[in-house]
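Tokens as discussed.
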């Protein structure tokens, strides 16, 4: 449920401080920013930020002249005996988006996790939010091989426009050669055997204007992702073919360059 990149121009990135949040007032600021981003349906309360902080999670804030303009909240998880972080929320104020703030929050998150011996961070994202998908897969080097239909249920948030909250699960293998190369701007080419899932480039406009049409696109995407994941493919990138079509790129798990994925553990 991460939403860090969008439109807007304001402060220079160099003027923005990224640091841990540790006070109740800062957690309340996170909740206010949360409500501005997703609406006031059922925001995660400040008490959960306190719990995350005291149980091995992360609360990271981005500040400009003392004002919180973005945050990341992650909780600690354990799977197959291995500690990981589930990054539940990342948000940046609209006027500060497209300034690299979301990326700086994620890079700080990675650095902090590695210092603590944590090798993987996961989060969910809407597969129809193509800009976020590009940020997650192409800019950060995350991959996805799990699809959760209607993960959070039908909500009143204007961002979901009444559709099921289908989500891909991003896996960010922090110390993998794949991630290191991508963060160093060394592109990792896809294999010739890659599969592709086509989506309308303007899918955001489609579902905002016509819920039924949006649900058709979502259902078709869900079917294809679930089929390819069952066949051992992993979503590794997203490319805009032209003004009308954008494609997810999926590669076989055993063929990924610079990343050896463990088997998915039953939850």
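Sequence:
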């Amino acid at each position: 449920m991460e939403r860090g990149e969008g439109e807007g121009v304001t402060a220079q990135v160099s003027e923005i401080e990224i640091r841990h949040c540790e006070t109740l007032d800062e957690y309340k600021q996170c909740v206010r920013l949360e409500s501005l981003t997703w609406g006031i349906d059922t925001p995660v309360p400040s008490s959960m930020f306190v719990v995350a902080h005291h149980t091995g999670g992360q609360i990271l804030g981005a500040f400009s002249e003392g004002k919180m303009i973005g945050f990341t909240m992650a909780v600690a998880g354990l799977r197959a005996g291995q500690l990981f972080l589930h990054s539940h929320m990342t948000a940046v104020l609209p006027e500060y988006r497209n300034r690299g703030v979301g990326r700086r929050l994620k890079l700080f998150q990675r650095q902090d996790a590695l210092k603590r011996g944590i090798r993987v961070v996961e989060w969910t994202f809407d597969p129809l939010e193509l800009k976020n998908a590009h940020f997650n897969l192409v800019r950060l080097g995350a991959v996805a091989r799990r699809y959760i239909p209607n993960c959070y249920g039908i909500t009143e948030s204007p961002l979901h426009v009444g559709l099921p909250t289908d989500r891909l699960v991003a896996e960010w293998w922090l110390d993998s050669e794949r991630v290191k190369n991508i963060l160093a701007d060394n592109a990792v080419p896809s294999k010739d055997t890659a599969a592709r899932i086509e989506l309308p480039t303007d899918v955001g406009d489609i579902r905002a204007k016509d819920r039924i049409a949006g649900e058709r696109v979502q259902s078709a995407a869900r079917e294809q992702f679930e089929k390819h994941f069952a066949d051992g493919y992993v979503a590794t990138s997203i490319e805009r073919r032209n003004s009308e079509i954008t494609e997810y790129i999926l590669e076989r798990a055993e063929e990924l360059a610079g990343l050896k994925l463990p088997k998915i553990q039953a939850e």
